Amino acid sequence: MLPLIRYHLTYYTRSYRYVAPLIAYVGLLLFIYTISPNPVLESYAFSSVWLFVISAWIIWGLTDLEPEAQQSVTAMHAGSANAYYLSKLLLMAAIGLLLAAFAVLYPALAGKLERWPAPEEWLVAACVHIASSLLGTGIALWFTDRGFGRSAASLPALIGFMVLSLASASAVAQLPERMTFVRWLLPPAGVLSEVLSGLEHTSSWTAVGTILYALAYARLLCGGYVVRAAVKKF
Questions:
Q1: Which residues of 17-41 are buried (b: 16+ CB within 10 A; e: fewer)?
Q2: pLDDT band at 107 (very low <50, low <70, confident <90, very high)
Q3: What pLDDT digit, counting tens, does each position of 157-174 carry?
Q4: Domain ranges of the chain
């Protein structure tokens, strides 16, 4: 598995497709934190949303990077299509962890926040960023060639779905109360950021439950994609 991950990483870095999303991610966070001090929870809520977007961008450029014929050859050398796609997924998760660590650690260590985060704020912020990254990854996977199919509508559909998942709270607010369950059928990216920004007024059980739900949702998306991509013929 490790040689496969190194192969995907080498192939990706040589393509330079990481440059634009990395510059956008780091650049915007550095720009936002030029003015300080910043509120702790609201800052982390914003960076978790931005990580959600950037994770989807990275996956969009990484997943279908190899030509289809080369994907087939690589999967054959990997021993199975499952191993091939799982190794890609592990690389994506590792990239997301690094980006999440930067978003959580940088503003505090650089003195950009109005105060030092409390231990529980560190923990919740880290978990929310990781869950947001995995959600962005899982959603984007389903709008790639082996998820959505080769179509010019895949990118607009991805953007629309991500906007809907971020705006789920305001969108569902217009629905009758008996239909508010629809909010939980959408990827809970917006719900995660709300929990983080309102952590002072949110019970611990609500925060933990929301994070676990988001992680389970992301796992379902990623696992479902691996199964679908592995059985779909090249």
A1: bbeebeeebeeebeebbeeeeeebb
A2: very high
A3: 888 888 888 886 566 556
A4: 2-231
